[in-house]
Amino acid sequence: MWRCIAGVVFLVPLLTAASINKRSIDLIAAHGLISDTKLPGDVTPNSYTLKLHPYPDHGNFSGEISINATVQHQTKQVVLHKHPDLRINLLRVVQILPSDYESRTMSPNSNEKGYKVQMLKTTWEQTTVSIEDSRISVGSRKVNKQSMISIDMDTVMKTGAVLEIYIEFEGYMFNDTTEGLFRNSYIDPETKQKKWYVATFMRPNLARNVFPCFDEPAYKVPFQVTIIRPKHMRAIFNMPLESSSDPSSYWVADRFQRTPPMTTFSFAMVISELSHISINVSDSEVYFPDIKMRVWARPDFIEALTNVTTKVSKSVKFLEDFWGSPYPLPELNIFALPNYQATKPADSWGLLMFKESELSSKGSWHLTQELVYQWLGALATPFWWSDAHINNALVRYITAYATLKIGENETFNNWPTTMLYSIYYEFSKRYPHGKNTAIKQDSSSAKTELVFRMLNYTLGETTFKHGMQRFMSDRQFKTFFGDDIWLSLTEQARFDKTLPEPITINEIAGSWITKDRLPVVTVTRNYNDNTAKIYQRVYLRERPHDVPDQEKFLWWIPVVLIRQDKMNFRNTTPLIWMMKEREIILQDMPAADTFIIINPEEIGPFPVNYDTENWNMLAEYLQTENRTRIPVYTRAKLLHDAWNLAYAGDLSFATALNMTLFLKNEREYLAWDPVFTLIDHIGKHIDSSAVHKKFQTYVRLLLTPLYQELGNEPQEGESEGRAHLRSSSKVFLCQTGYKPCIEEAQAAFKKWMDCKNPDEGNPVANQYICPVFKWGTKEEWEFGLQRIIRFPPSRKPSERTYLLKTLTGCPNDPSKIERLLNITVLEQNGNFTDNDIYLIFSMLTGSANGYTTLFNFLRKNWDTIKTRFEDKPMLWNSIITSATTVFKTQEGLDMVSKLYLERRTEFGNADFVIEKALKNIREETRWSNDNLPVIEKWLDGYLRNNEDKIDC
């Protein structure tokens, strides 16, 4: 349906039942906003005319809104959103003719209090409806924390009727939140006076806090906005200023240009006295003569943002080319708001708001992400919150892609490895996410982001880019479902012949997105007939591998293959797709003395296992000078896959440890990145065994040459990757007892011990505290204990918490831990709260010394502890859990089993804890029995070959 309003033509599509019922892939089942009950859809908006009058000094606002709406289904009720704190002073609903649009005025002609009805006698399709005497009843209700208002009339409104819903309202701004319309202040450095600013944060559904509206992403309509501001301040809106008038000596009314169709969460405004800098041709290699771009900040902070305009220019130019679509608005205003407390920037359309530190930071990732939202989210908008998930994932991928392409990757050089490793760990658990909805949402979004990356590789960059352009061209100024993205990519791939028929992107994406799991692919080569069997199953790292229905899980997997005799890592076209097949056979594999690599560069988010012979050929090749022919991402992947498959019980640890031998010549941070996580995981798993000491020696031998080469101090102009590599190697060397590290830490700690008033503050960097408490003297540890006991209330509690965590979790000496337990549990020292004790128990699970000492303490003092905690079930459950559940060897199983038999009837409400602990320890014991002998044998051989270096 076409609407012609104020001389501008907009297409406002009617929401049909078919479009409302359409569903895309169920991307996430627990999105926090899906519980927001949908509006009935009987009446839908065509446009908003809004006048908003904030009072910055007083913290309140008033406004009036006229909503032009169409009746989609015969009804006597209009339902829209309104927050309970928003007070309605006057309301009317008028049925109007299209010819009346230009003549309608906003203000009613009644001064009476309460809800007023002013209806017109109108005609619609030759049917005269007299509704002058109708009355409206208004009711507010809260539905799943999302507020609605229902307007009930005594006359039925027929399908197609056009309404004007006029409402006067008022509300309050708050400066302790950034939701809706808020205010905040800062001190002017010259005048020392407090200055207020007013701003909005409408995403995801906070527009209802500011004005009554249809606050759902599906309703994209134009806004005509007038903002009334103090004369000494300036108002910035999504669109440029059209005109200003002076209704009083103090207030100015700014009328802004009419917006294109947009959602309520895209609405944005800032009223402030901030200064700005603009992009001009002399400041930037890129110039946008048709777009006014400005960066706003406090006058004394503006110099810190001079590089922002260049970063914005580069990103906008790249994104315009990527989308094949110019920046969609005539203005772009970017604010560095003082004292801005939102957890993320406000990515409204044409108006971005950042914390000052975010906007002045070195990198450009955050800035580019908010610019991506200008197209994907604002220009093309998800129809409902379930589709917002795929919107977020695609924004994240395009942001990463753009950041790397334009070279602004200062803090981004390890993407996507860090994200990949974390979701591998999460989705390989027996129970991914637990009950944590936030973790589920983040890991699901990360997985979807990696699916887009996989498609970019397998379809080719050109097809992916043109597919995105096809999608944007079709859905700009409209809403979309997730299926629309997959369809555009499929159509483009068909056109470019980069996807075999009858495969569709929807099928491929759906197999990944709808599962809370990831696959592992096993490659078994037959060296006699040059074939390879490719087999897929669920990747399970955490034991036991007893996940129900795992045989039903199948994915569409691209088989991208690299051969040693033809190492072309630029060709990422799949040799074949596993079309939800359990296994396939590849023909024409290379000769028996030549390795293959499946899924190079982590093209798809799945680990790959090989037969032992192929692993050994890879390990040997990586130790040669030719290893750099394999890109660093793939070197990291091979190492990461090997260790994690060994950890899961799918690969011999001897093979996995062989894959680390090339590190003696490796200096790329990305290749080392997975090593530190794996050292931590394996170290914690074996630290209760005799093998652990040998493992620590191996780690020292591995890291010492690297650390010595990097040096103890940063070098001028070095990369962030090199700095991070130095820091990580130092931390892990300290954990293994590397003498130079311990001596450096003790020297720093001594400065604190020599202070006249050590309780006034801690002059020691955090990096030194744990090594001192772990390897230092009892005197040093006792000094730390006294600092906790005497901690003054004037200092930050977080400093005390950190000190308590390290004092508890770091020591190797059981006597230190036992002393702390005696003081806090048996002596009930008043300086330690129940929360402190709970934290102590939790921290002791981090090392074998910790939980073994806690177990012995519990067994020795059972009766006293039971009496002490009988009225504190949280602490009782905590000590039972921490003292019994972390053992991983037969010795630990025997200890816990004996305690259970001795005290079987005395565990009380912690009985289920000990039973679960015994089950888990049995599983861990099986792992230890299978793997520790293999690890020890390999370590013995390695240490023999490096005997001359062990004194380091």
From TrEMBL:
Keyword Lyase: no
GO terms classed as biological process: proteolysis
A Pfam family it matches: ERAP1_C
Top EC class for this record: hydrolase
Active-site residue list: 370
Cofactor section: Zn(2+)
Residue intervals of the Peptidase M1 membrane alanine aminopeptidase domain: 312-494
GO molecular function: aminopeptidase activity; metallopeptidase activity; zinc ion binding
Keyword Glycoprotein applies: yes
PANTHER family for the chain: FI02158P, PROTEASE M1 ZINC METALLOPROTEASE
Protein name: Aminopeptidase
Biological source species: Rhynchophorus ferrugineus (Red palm weevil)
